[in-house]
């Protein structure tokens, strides 16, 4: 029997895509953009990452839609040497519903972090393998076969690379980097390239306008962290940043960061074993602790070299509460320590102490909330604030917060063991390389400061 009582529909609704992205940008720093793209490349198991600030202007006569002409100017590109999977294509279309949410080995795949690129652009573009995709959060430029607006469109490169009527549309994606495969002849890209045409005037999505000055400030901040960006990544080994303003493909990077070690094959072999153990842990078949203790250098393009000892441990024992929270939060009980090695010329103990940063794979932004209070850098599979600028901690307003409790347990239960492994490795390295004992003493906590 149907009720005759009159009423009307009622209930919560989800926000439109544009409104959702506006909310993300209001709470998310634009200074993290390049780091988020680096994290996505790491999750994709890429070994090389390239960024380029391209100031060129491309033609506008032959485009998919005449309204797209305003996106043919200066842009930021991000390339990595891993192809998109079907899961990646699915995930990038679901910014509020990450398909990687429960995958403990995927830290930044195309969720809130990727949405930070909308600080730069109103029209992200992706080329990977045989596909070119354009995301249009305004739903202005593409429609379906019923003329209904769409939030973007994807194309098979085989169908458009030889079409003269869209040649200007494809031009910004050809010959961007030295050594890049020729998309036009191969009709595919061996890797993944993002293009973010810079916003030239405020829009409904974001009022930020990135001029050359603003982009160079973004790159400068990235450069300042260059010698620590690769410390706790397990796939990416090299990052290049280029500036381009002519038809000539740039060869000399503005910034270059790379890992270096005398025995690179053995170094990579150990990392492969570590990653395989991680996969076993994720599948539930791993029962013992996983550890990776390394000695390597990080070099930058201005000939700076910094030596490091790092120790990373994923603990599978000690704390029942830690394991319960790991299952509940889909986190890993993973902690790392990075000890900087001095050049061996010190004459005194405690001549230089590192101001340790906090990492969740990549360093948190500088500031009081981004420092560890220890003379070493500390990485953890931490729960971070929504803007990824600080850790959640069991303070007065978060006593019952499970993520805050998790972070506290990582520090109390796992970190001491990892710290000891890092110090022991540093002692061994100092002996074998003839380094001054200050390398070790500089890495020990100063109890008088706490």
UniProtKB/TrEMBL annotation:
Residues 16-246 form the Sacsin/Nov domain. Pfam families: SACS. InterPro entries: HATPase_C_sf, SACS/Nov_dom. It comes from the Eukaryota. This is Sacsin/Nov domain-containing protein. It comes from Stichopus japonicus. The lineage of its organism: Eukaryota, Metazoa, Echinodermata, Eleutherozoa, Echinozoa.
């Amino acid at each position: 029997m149907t009720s005759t009582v009159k009423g009307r529909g009622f209930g919560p609704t989800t926000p439109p895509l544009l409104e959702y992205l506006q909310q993300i940008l209001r709470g998310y720093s634009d200074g993290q953009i390049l780091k988020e793209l680096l994290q996505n490349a790491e999750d994709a198991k890429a070994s090389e990452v390239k960024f380029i600030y391209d100031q060129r202007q491309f033609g506008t006569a032959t485009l998919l839609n005449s309204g797209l002409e305003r996106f043919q100017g200066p842009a930021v590109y991000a390339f990595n040497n891993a192809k998109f999977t079907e899961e990646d294509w699915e995930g990038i279309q679901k910014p509020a519903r990450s398909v990687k949410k429960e995958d403990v080995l995927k830290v930044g795949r195309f969720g809130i972090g990727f949405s930070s690129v909308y600080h730069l652009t109103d029209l992200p573009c992706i080329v990977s393998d045989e596909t070119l995709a354009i995301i249009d959060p305004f739903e202005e430029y593409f429609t379906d076969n019923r003329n209904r607006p769409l939030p973007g469109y994807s194309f098979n490169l085989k169908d458009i690379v030889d079409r003269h009527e869209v040649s200007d549309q494809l031009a910004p994606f050809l010959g961007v980097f030295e050594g890049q495969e020729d998309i036009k002849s191969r009709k595919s890209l061996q890797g993944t390239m993002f293009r973010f045409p810079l916003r030239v005037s405020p829009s409904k999505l974001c009022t930020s306008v990135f001029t050359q000055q603003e982009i160079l400030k973004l790159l400068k901040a990235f450069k300042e962290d260059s010698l620590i960006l690769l410390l706790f990544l397990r796939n990416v080994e090299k990052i290049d940043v280029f500036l381009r303003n002519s038809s000539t493909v740039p060869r000399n990077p503005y910034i270059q960061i790379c890992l270096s070690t005398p025995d690179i094959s053995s170094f990579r072999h150990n990392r492969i074993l570590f990653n395989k153990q991680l996969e076993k842990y994720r599948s539930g078949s791993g029962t013992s602790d996983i550890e990776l203790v390394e000695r390597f250098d990080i070099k930058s393009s201005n000939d700076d070299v910094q030596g490091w000892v790092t120790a990373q441990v994923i603990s599978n024992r000690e704390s029942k509460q830690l394991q319960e929270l790991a299952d509940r939060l889909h986190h890993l009980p993973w902690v790392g320590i990075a000890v900087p090695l001095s050049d061996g010329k010190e004459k005194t103990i405690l001549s230089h102490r590192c101001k340790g940063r906090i990492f969740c794979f990549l360093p948190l932004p500088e500031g009081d909330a981004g420092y560890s209070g220890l003379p070493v850098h500390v990485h953890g599979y931490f729960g971070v604030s929504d803007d990824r600028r600080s850790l959640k901690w069991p303070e007065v307003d978060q006593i019952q917060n499970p993520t805050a409790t998790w972070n506290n347990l990582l520090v109390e239960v796992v970190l001491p063991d990892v710290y000891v492994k890092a110090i022991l490795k540093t002692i061994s390295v100092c002996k074998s390389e003839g380094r001054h004992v200050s390398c070790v003493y500089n890495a020990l906590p100063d109890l008088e400061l706490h």
